[in-house]
Amino acid sequence: MSPFTEQAVTAADKTFFQLRKDIVEGVISAGSKLSETELSTNYGVSRAIIREAINRLESSSLVERKANIGARVVSLSAEGLVELYQVRESLEGMAARLAAKNMTDHEINDLQALLNSQFEKVQSDGNYYQEAGDVDFHYRIILGCKNSHLISMLINSIYHLVRMYRVQLGMAGPRVTTAFDEHKHIVQAICNRDEELAEMLMRRHIMYSKKNIEKKLTHSIT
Length: 222
Prior knowledge:
By secondary structure, the chain is mostly helical. It folds into 2 domains: 11-73, Orthogonal Bundle (Arc Repressor Mutant, subunit A), CATH 1.10.10; 78-221, GntR ligand-binding domain-like (Four Helix Bundle (Hemerythrin (Met), subunit A), Up-down Bundle). It contains 9 helices and 2 strands. Strand 1 (63-66) and strand 2 (70-73) form a beta hairpin. Helix 2 crosses helix 3, helix 4 runs parallel beside helix 8 (175-191) and helix 5 runs antiparallel to helix 6.
C-alpha cells in the first residue's frame, strides 16, 4: 500500500475526511465561515475534533484564517486559480515525465483500464466526475512518478484545492470530451516511455483546464 493512501483510523480522521469532501464538493460553500459549535452539532463530534479537522484543512490550503474573522473556507477566484494552476502545471508536468520513466507496465495497464472504464460514462451523460484517490487519473500519475517529495507536495499540499476547482467548476460541458481525449494521449505517451511528450501533454492539458475554469469563474462573477 502506498504511504500516501489515506485510511480513516480515528473519529478525528473520519470527520476530517468528510469535512474535506463536503468543502471540495461545495456542500459547505466556498468563502463561508466555519463555526466549531455548528459543525460539531452537524457532524456529531466534539468541538476539539472539529478544531483539529480545521487545522488540518488549513494545511491542505482549503481553509484560511483571518484576523477578527476566524476560519473560513477559501474562496474560488480567478487570481487564486491562476496561481494554483501555475504551480500545478509545473509539478504535475514533472510527475508525468517521471511516471513515463518509473511506472511499471502493470501500473500503466491499470491506468489504461481506469480510463476505459470511465469512457462509457463520458459518452452517456457528458460528465467526467472523478472521486478522489485511486479512481482519479491525476492521482494515479502523481503516485506513479515514484518521487516521494513531489508526491507529498502535490497530494498533501494542493491536490484537494485543485479538486475543489475541478469539481465545482470544471467537470461538465464541452470540455469533458476534449479533457478525456487529452488523458488518453497522456497515457499513450507514458506507455511509450516518452518522458518529454508526457510532460508537454500534461502541462498543456492543465493549461487548457485552467482556461476552461477561468471562463466559468468570469461568467459566475459577471
